[in-house]
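Weekly structure sync, notes
Attendees: PL (lead), two postdocs, one rotation student
Agenda item 3: pending single-chain targets
PL asked that the sequence for the first pending target be pasted directly into the notes so everyone works from the same version. It is reproduced below exactly as submitted, 576 residues in total.
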Amino acid sequence: MDRTSVIAVAAAVTVLVGWEFWYAPKMARQQAAQRPVAAATAPTLAANTPTSPVTPPSFQPAKPLPATEPAVAETITKAATLSAQYEFTNIGGGIERAVLLKHDAERGPVTLNEFGSVPIGAISETAGDGTNLGYTVTAAAGVVTCERTAPDGLRVVKKFTLPTETSGAKEFVVNLDITFQNTSAQPHHSANYFVYVGSAAKIHERDLPTYTAFEYFGGKAVETSVMWFEPGRIPLVGIQTSAGKEKYEVAAKEITWAGVKSQYFNTILTPLDEKGEVSAKGQGVWARRFPLPNEPKLYGIEGALAMPGFDLKPGESSTEHFQIYAGPKDYRLLKQLGDSHAEIMNFGMFKIVSIFLLKMMNALKGVLGSFAAAIIVMTFIIRGAMWPLQNKANQSMKRMQALQPKMTELREKYKDDPTRMNQELMKLYRDYGASPFAGCLPMFVQIPVFFGFYAMLGTAIELRGSHFLWVKDLSQPDTVTHLFGFPLNILPLCMAVTMLAQMQLTPKSGDAMQQKIFMFLPLIFISFCYNFASALALYWTVQNIFSIAQLYITKNQPVKALKKIEQPDTKKRGKR
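Predicted structure, written out during the meeting:
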């Protein structure tokens, strides 16, 4: 690597680290109050509670109600199970809030669709409009019914059936049946209509807002985060290249489900057939983002699934079936809903690695009783499997270190001819059977594991609330205090220190400038880990300690003396 390339790489790394340290803390603020809800001990239903007339909160004006349908006062009907409390509103006829009683945030139980302008299960003919119509809401025996009759005689009845299961995915599933009945004397035609999946926003103050997204599955999972709506800009410079986008719309056939998600929770709407099996009836999707209360620079997202239209003769009716999953992003639970539902985890290009690590971590936790212990043991297993490869790399680096005097001579001799210098260096490596890249091989092998962990920990809920020593939550940064407004996170700093110690013990190979580049590695890893789940820094710190121990154990192993390898005589072989 020439000096210009070295300087370019070093500058790029410095910019990356600076950007992460400047931008990540800014995204980690959210001051939104969450309403505490009393825990339920059994499935219950509460009477309608009238409130003052309301206009649904929104970031843009709502479509006015028709003159024949004046504004109505909102009433809230609460229905609870052992796992969740659901608040149904008569405006839009759907679930205004879903409060997960078994999952806590900083200000009380986790609340889904807390800031959205449209209830879960609302319907409209035009995406984003006409969701503020009044319904009559009744509740009995674990079923909440929302009903209204339009001026043209179309009667809409929504039946929400609450879950009775207390474990597995079904404890978070509400079944929704929507019946359309033509009560008029004229045929009724309806084009595509939209069923709303609700909204998602940050749950924890330090959740990364980039995980707030709308997603749908139509043969493959397609994700649209709140950042998609931003104006196009040149990175770092900030010059705008394109306007921001107000909405996201896609027309597509055979959509299996649509959902909104934050970092660790999601709401998924799935069409079902008459047998209750997952069907692919969706015809398109729509989504938009909105600013969060008291945080205009942070956004939530809400969306809807387009369903095919229908024709009804006078007196005819048609019923569509859906399931609403409003709960944690738990891979095991999502797999129970259907193979495609787990795609909302969005593990990325290292999906196979992430799933393997998640299953391995859960299995070890079942034996050890602690996620922290599971991560430590899993790290020892992974590093133990790589022991022979690391030993071989250490031996190669020692050979490269022994070649340093000869390499220095060649660099000095051909300093004015870089091409010839590189040719001679390659001949030197070939003559002595050395490779300047052999020492990097263990690091390259570990990269998929690191990013597999990164993707898995960034979206899987298993570690949420797990403790370890001073760490209160392994799914969050382990901040112990703030210095001048900057969070002091211990594990990433321990990770950097152990990386530096490992580098000091590692046999030196390559030129001095390349060695200086490797000194940037701790900064690069800190940029990934500092404001991320502390479990990632725990894993990398433990593997660094393992590597240090391995270097101590193997440092006195004899290295074969440098000896030229006899090269075949290609000229003689060619004559034969």
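Discussion points:
- Residues 1-68 have pLDDT under 50 and may be disordered.
- Residues 3-28+364-554 form one domain.
Action: rotation student to compare against the earlier draft before next sync.
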